[in-house]
Amino acid sequence: MTLNKKKIAIFISGRGSNMLSIIKASQDPSFPAEISLILSSATNAAGVEKAKEFNIPALNMPWKRLGQDEFEKKAHDLLKKDSIDLICLAGFIRILSADFILKWSGKIINIHPSLLPAFKGLEAQKQAFDYGVKYTGCTVHHVVPELDAGPIIHQKAVPVKKNDTLDNLKARILEAEHICYPEAIELLLKNKV
Ligand code: GRF
């Protein structure tokens, strides 16, 4: 039986390692989606070049130059044109407007490098490390207008080791993210959340 694959757009701002983990997962025939579009908010995101190696349409839409309204308008038109079913924010550093989020309500998800609802916002790994938690991790959640507050789809816990440095911990959280994001997409699109 052939799967009726959903269409995913990934929004990035930089290196795109989570984007890459989703692209790689999508190469498995049983994955419920194909990656149709990559949009970057940067002038020259490394992730855009990586996506092109997989022949995925990818483009830089510099948020700073365009301004938020123009970025969101262009993005909306491209997403509509491609009949995108799901938008995955992966290292996307900009905050989308409530208007955009509500237009795509239920169809935008994000990955955050902590076990939400703990350590929302910037430098979540450092916040957890400095607090002295024994476990942190990552969370894939629905995007709602309030920052890092939408319903949780999937999480992975990462233990903090006795002699951890912040950099070691960040690297292990990133490894967990690369497993967590594709799993979350699969759970969501297969209605298992
Ligand atoms: C990840 O740690 C993600 O959780 C955070 O930004 C980082 C992006 O990394 N939002 P990458 O661009 O996916 O490599």
Q: Which secondary structure elements does this structure contain, and how are they paired or packed?
A:
Blueprint: E1 6-12, H1 17-26, E2 33-40, H2 46-53, E3 58-60, H3 63-66, H4 68-81, E4 86-89, H5 98-103, E5 108-112, H6 124-131, E6 135-142, E7 152-159, H7 166-189
Parallel strand pairs: 1-2, 1-4, 2-3, 4-5
Antiparallel strand pairs: 5-6, 6-7
Helix pairs in contact: 1-7
Bound molecules: 5-O-phosphono-beta-D-ribofuranosylamine (GRF).
Task: Describe the overall structure.
This protein has 193 residues and is an alpha/beta fold. It has helices at residues 17-26, 46-53, 63-66, 68-81, 98-103, 124-131, 166-189, and strands spanning 6-12, 33-40, 58-60, 86-89, 108-112, 135-142, 152-159. The protein has a seven-stranded mixed beta sheet. Helix 1 (17-26) runs parallel beside helix 7 (166-189). 5-O-phosphono-beta-D-ribofuranosylamine binds at residues 12, 14-18, 90-91, 111-113, 174, 177. 5-O-phosphono-beta-D-ribofuranosylamine binds next to helix 1, strand 5 and helix 7.
